[in-house]
Write a structure and sequence with these properties.
single chain; alpha/beta; Pantoate--beta-alanine Ligase, Chain: A,domain 2; five-stranded parallel sheet; three-stranded antiparallel sheet; 8 strands; 39% helix; globular; binds pantoate
């Protein structure tokens, strides 16, 4: 890394947990516009999983991932071991906590998840020392947490966020889509359709009747066979409930289809 920096090369980091899809590739394509050297990390981070079963079941497709990254001219693949990242074991690690953002919404549903994400991201930033790092907007709360880390912990890193990549039917690309069976895969696009429809209604309502609009959308999702974990609209900047001052809103949704938890969001301006 030092040699690259001495040569005045800009370094971009794309942290991933592998099982790459076009969403990750879009991060690589964007990184090509900003940096000389692209480093993709592949590390299935045990401390960000709610339970061991989910961690063990996380698809590991390392060889296929490497082939994809090679095809897109990624310079370095960083794939540390658990011991290298957590030398004192995963129970003794130092945890990074973002007090306002880690424990709400997705963090409330998945206690410890964002502390795990924040911790591994700090470790990766410290090791790789990139000037740029690239993240998808699908994990919106994660993105805000990482932007907060950069400011609060004084990292000299520019965070570039990339819009969610979707299939033609609107379904957000995700490694989790691989777990959907054939009937679930047909229903899955409704999540984003209903999010879009809710956003349109909220815009038209000029912030009136929001709870009624949300209630109706949730009923629609239930009818389609989703089990809802999170479905609400927030201030896009603070992730608090909308206030009169809110200018940009975001609908954040997470819902189960069978055994798969899908997440998605949509940001929009309101008056
Ligand atoms: O979004 C992910 O894949 C993970 O949360 C990340 C950012 C690679 C940290 O493990």
């Amino acid at each position: 890394m030092n040699t690259l920096k001495k040569q005045n090369k800009t370094i971009g980091l794309i942290p991933t947990m592998g099982n790459l899809h076009y969403g990750h590739i879009s991060l690589v394509l964007s990184a090509q516009k900003y940096v000389d050297i692209i480093i993709v990390s592949i590390f299935v981070n045990p401390i960000q999983f709610d339970n061991e079963h989910d961690f063990k079941k996380y698809p590991q497709t390392f060889e296929k991932d490497c082939e994809i990254l090679k095809k897109y001219n990624v310079d370095i693949i960083f794939f540390p071991t658990i011991h290298e990242m957590y030398p004192f074991g995963i129970k003794n690690e130092i945890l990074i906590e973002i007090s306002n953002l880690s424990n709400i919404i997705e963090g409330q549903s998945r206690p410890g998840h964002f502390q795990g994400v924040a911790t591994i991201i700090c470790k990766l930033f410290n090791l790789v020392q990139p000037q740029y790092a690239f993240f998808g907007e699908k994990d919106y709360q994660q993105l805000l947490i990482i932007k907060t880390i950069v400011i609060e912990l004084n990292y000299m890193i520019k965070i570039i966020s990339i819009p969610t990549i979707r299939s033609r039917n609107g379904l957000a690309l995700s490694s989790r889509n691989n777990h959907l069976n054939s009937s679930e895969i047909k229903k899955a696009p409704y999540l984003y359709k209903i999010i879009q429809n809710t956003a349109e209604k909220i815009i038209k309502s000029k912030k009136n009747n929001i709870s009624e609009i949300i209630k109706i959308s949730k009923l629609k999702l239930l009818e389609k066979g989703f089990f809802i974990d999170i479905f609400n609209v927030y201030d896009a900047e603070k992730l608090q409930f909308l206030s009169k001052k809110s200018k940009e809103a975001i609908i954040i949704a997470s819902a189960w289809l069978g055994k798969t938890r899908l997440i998605d969001n949509k940001k929009f301006f309101i008056r």
